[in-house]
Design a protein that fits this description.
- The protein is mainly beta.
- The protein folds into two domains: about 35 residues, no CATH class; about 260 residues, 6 Propeller (Neuraminidase).
- Helix content is about 10%, strand content about 40%.
- The protein has two helices and 24 strands.
- Bound molecules: calcium ion (4 copies).
- The site of one calcium ion has 8 residues, from loops.
Length: about 325
């Protein structure tokens, strides 16, 4: 009864006050639990992804609860790597419908795409700047892949990297000041970060395994990425010094291409051999991540890769 003593339960009046206080605390706790975000709510925006479920690579969108599957492209060419414009009203993607791979933009509901790049070589992995005024992508028009940034309409492309290795998978920081990307300039793939003008390129992962698919947390202080350092690909969370904050998945599948949704949700692609599907992870506590349950996006498996979560408007 030491606990009760501390609340000075000496008279019925004190006891009543104590129970009132307890009831209030319980009510507050219940209210807090009720407001905990549930994963994959239909009003959390859409997830665009690529899939060959209909015979060739197309871009699709789906609600994070697995409903409302919609095909956005319909072309026998390869259509890959969708990226939402920050307005949530346009989707950029990469397609070889005109011969080599170029970046195209289409309305969020699908429809006629217009080309953004018309370079020699192949252009992949479009990523809009957070203000929507620029677009980053990777192109091998100089022989190996480099990161480029152009105006939103494709004009004035600037090359940000310049080496013989492959530099690709650009990802803008939420404040638009930095770009994370993947490069094998040190022998194996690493996640690097540079300023948005290409200066101060630095290695964050520094691990002998292949590290890739960086995705900035909306706070700008953490980056989710994939690595095969335990033998197959898992998702990890690191800070901007490259310190691993948490290992987010642990299984014998290849978990890659994380994308952040509202309330610390991550959608990603999980594959095993030729089987690949979209999965969802809800991080309940960013201060203590790593023990969160992974589940399928929807009831039935949705064959999908390179998911990209629609920004909330
Ligand atoms: Ca296609
Ligand atoms: Ca290069
Ligand atoms: Ca590495
Ligand atoms: Ca795995």
């Amino acid at each position: 009864m030491k606990l009760l003593d501390s609340f000075e339960m000496r008279t019925p009046m004190h006891a009543l006050r104590w129970f009132a206080r307890l009831a209030l605390l319980l009510a507050l706790a219940a209210a807090a639990l009720a407001h905990l975000p549930a994963a994959g709510q239909p009003d959390d925006g859409l997830i665009a992804f690529m899939s060959d479920m209909d015979g060739n690579w197309e871009i699709y969108s789906v609600s994070p609860d697995g409903r409302g599957l919609r095909r956005l492209t319909d072309h026998r060419a390869d259509d890959r790597y969708p990226a939402w414009h920050p307005s949530g009203e346009l989707v950029a993607f990469s397609s070889d419908r005109d011969g080599s791979f170029n970046i195209y933009v289409m309305p969020a509901e699908g429809g006629d795409p217009r080309p953004i790049t018309r370079g020699k070589g192949d252009a992949f992995y479009p990523a809009w700047s957070p203000d929507g005024e620029q677009i980053a992508y990777a192109s091998n028009e100089d022989g190996d892949f480099e990161i480029y940034v152009s105006d939103a309409d494709g004009r004035s492309p600037r090359r940000l990297t310049d080496n013989r290795a492959d530099d690709w998978f650009p990802a803008w920081s939420p404040d638009g000041q930095q770009i994370a990307f993947v490069t094998d300039r040190d022998g194996d793939f690493e996640v690097y970060v540079m300023n948005a003008d290409g200066s101060q390129q630095r290695n964050l992962t520094r691990d002998g395994a292949d590290d890739g698919s960086p995705a900035w947390h909306p706070s700008g202080e953490l980056i989710a990425f994939s690595s095969n350092r335990d033998g197959d690909y898992e998702l990890y969370l690191m800070d901007l010094d490259g310190r691993i904050v948490a290992q987010l998945t642990a299984n014998d599948r290849d978990d890659q291409d994380p994308t952040w949704g509202p309330n610390d949700q991550i959608a990603f692609s999980s594959s095993s051999g030729r089987n690949y599907e979209l999965r969802l992870l809800q991080l309940d506590d960013l201060d203590d991540p790593g023990d969160d349950e992974v589940r399928r996006l929807g009831q039935e498996p949705i064959q999908g890769g390179s998911p990209n979560w629609q920004p909330s408007s």
